[in-house]
Amino acid sequence: MQQVWIPKIGEPEVLELREAPDPEPAPGQVRVRVTASGINFADILARMGLYPDAPKLPAVVGYEVAGVVDGVGDGVTGARDGDRVVCTTRFGGYSDLVCVPAGAALPMPAGLGFEAAAAIPVNYLTAWLMLVRLGHVQPGERVLVHACAGGVGLAALQICRHFGAEVIGTASASKHERLRAMGASACIDYRSQDFLAEVRRLTDGRGVDIALDAVGGASFRRSYKSLAPLGRLFIFGASSLAPGTSRSWVAALSGLWRMSSFKPLELMSHNKGVWGVNLGHLWSRADELAAMMGEILALVTTGALAPVVDRAFPLAEAAAAHRYLQERRNFGKVVLVFHWLCTGTHT
C-alpha cells in the first residue's frame, strides 16, 4: 500500500510518499480500500511538532477516510466486501488501505461521492458535538463561528441553519458572498475588522448565544466577551500557534501566553460557560460517536447537510495540499484522493 509519512518536523515538503505492506484486518475490524482521505489542521500541527496528541515521528496521520470494504475480520457480521463506507481513523488515514473497527465504518449515503464523504467525520462530528450534543442550539439563537469558510465552519453553518439559528461568521472578505449565499446572516472580515466590536454592533450590544473558536491566543477571551448571558463558548483548536508553514516557537509561545484562564467565580457572575472540545480524545466513546455520525448521515441523505469540498489533491501532492490549507486558501474541505482505485465509479 501507499502512505504519506511525516518523517520529521518541518514545512509541507517534508511529507514523503512511501510503500508499506498491506495490513490485514484483526478480529472485529474491516479493511477499507481508501478513495479519499480528509485533511485537518491537526495534521498540519502534527507536521510542525505542535500537536501533543500526534504519534511520535515518523508517523502517518489522518483521522477520516471514505472507500470500499475489501476485507472483513473474524466476528464481523454487519459489513461485507464491496460496501461503500465512511470511517473515522485514529491516525493512519493518509493511506490507501486502512483497518478500522467495524463500528467505525458506516454506510455512505446513496449518491454521495467519496470526496464528500471523506469531508464529513471530523468536521461534522466536531460541529455537532459543540452545537447539538453540548450546546443545545435553539431556533433564533445567534452563533459566532470563527473561520466560517473552513471545514468545521461550514459544517456549523449548515447545522445552525437546520436548527433555525443565525450565524455570524468570520472569514476573509473574498469569502463573504458565498457564506451569505449559504445562509450566514452576517460576515466579519477578521483581517480588517474587530470581531468583538462587530458582534456587539450586530446584536445591539446583547452578544451571541454560542461562540465556536479554534483560533486561540487572545481570541478566546474576546469570544468570551462576545457572549450574551447564558452564552456558551466552545474552544476546539489553536490555529494562531501556527501562523506560517514552519514552526515558530515565538509565535507558539506568544499564542499560549495570550490564552485566557477562565475563573469559576467569573463564570458564575457572568452566567456563561466555557467548553473545551477535542474529538481525538473521545475514541473510547465510540458508540456515542457512531450514534452522532448516524444522525449526521441521515441529514446528509435528506440534503439538509451537504459537505463542501474545496479541492482534492492526489496523494503524491500531499505537501501542496498542506500548504494550500495552511495558507487559508480553501472554502470548505481539502482532501487527498486515490483516483486509480475507483476507475469508473469515482465522483
Structural summary, described in words:
This protein has about 350 residues and is an alpha/beta fold. Helix content is about 30%, strand content about 25%. Strands 3, 4, 5, 6, 7, 14 and 15 form a 7-stranded mixed sheet that branches. Strands 10-9-8-11-12-13 form a 6-stranded parallel sheet, sandwiched between helices. Strand 11, helix 7 and strand 12 form a beta-alpha-beta unit. Helix 3 crosses helix 4 and helix 3 crosses helix 10. It is globular and about 60 Å long. The two termini are about 20 Å apart.
Provide a compact summary of the structure.
With about 350 residues, this protein is α/β, with parallel strands linked by helices. The protein has helices spanning about 40-45, 115-120, 120-135, 150-165, 175-180, 195-200, 220-225, 250-260, 265-270, 285-300, 320-325, and strands spanning about 1-5, 15-20, 30-40, 65-70, 85-90, 95-100, 105, 140-145, 165-170, 185-190, 210-215, 225-235, 275, 310-315, 335.
